[in-house]
Amino acid sequence: xxxxxxxxxxxxxxxxxxxxxxxxxxxxxxxxxxxxxxxxxxxxxxxxxxxxxxxxxxxxxxxxxxxxxxxxxxxxxxxxxxxxxxxxxxxxxxxxxxxxxxxxxxxxxxxxxxxxxxxxxxxxxxxxxxxxxxxxxxxxxxxxxxxxxxxxxxxxxxxxxxxxxxxxxxxxxxxxxxxxxxxxxxxxxxxxxxxxxxxxxxxxxxxxxxxxxxxxxxxxxxxxxxxxxxxxxxxxxxxxxxxxxxxxxxxxxxxxxxxxxxxxxxxxxxxxxxxxxxxxxxxxxxxxxxxxx
Length: 293
Hints:
Structural class: mainly alpha
Largest sheet: 2 strands, antiparallel
Number of strands: 2
C-alpha cells in the first residue's frame, strides 16, 4: 500500500463535506417566503454535492478487498510462528535504534495504535449500518411524506453519529500528525521490547478478523442505496411545490447527511490505518529476522 499521510488525506476529504446544518439554520432565520425560495437554489445544490461525496465514499469502500483481509490474517498466523525464533534470538538492545517503516507522520508506537483502534472498530461494526439505515429512513420520509416535510419538530437523533465521528478524528490526530513527514522510526519508538510483539500480533489478528468482509459489502450496498435516494430527493426538492419543507425536517435531514458522510469517511480511514499498521509490523519482523543470532 502507498505510504500516504492518512491524517492529511482525511482532513482534505472532510473539507469537501457540505456544511448543511449551518446553512439550514441560517436560512431558517430568514423570512419564510424567502427561505422557501432559497431551498431550491441552495439546498438542492448541496444535495448534488452530498451525492458526489457518497459516490466517493463508495469508491473508497471498493478499495477494501476481501483478499487483503484474508491475506492479512494468514500472514499474521505465519508471523506468530516466526516470532518464536525472534524472541529467542534477537536482543532488543541490538535493534532498538534500527529504523523500521511506519505510516507517514506516525507519532505513537504500534501498541498505542491497536489500543486506540479496538473501540473504534467495535463501534463501527456495531453502529455504521444502523446509522446509514436511520439516515436512509429520514431521506425516504422526506421524499414520500408531505407531512414529514412540514414537521416543525427538531430531532437530535443524529448526535450520536457526531460523537462516533469525533472519536475517530481524535484517535487519528493522536496516531498521525497531519504535517508529519517521517515514514521510518527507530524500533525503540515503535515497540517497548521484543516480547510486546506477541500481544501486538494477537491484537492485529483480532482486529483484522473483526472487519468482516460480508459486513463491508452490506455497508457498500447501503451507501449505494442512500446515494440513489439522495438523487431522488434532489429531484423532489427542485419541484417548487414539493420543496416546501420546514426548518425542523430540513435540519434533521441536513445534520443526518452531513454527520453520516463524515462518519463513513472516518470509518474507511480506520480500516486503512489498520491495514498499514499490519503491513508495517510485517516489515518490522522481517527486519528483526536479520538480527537473529
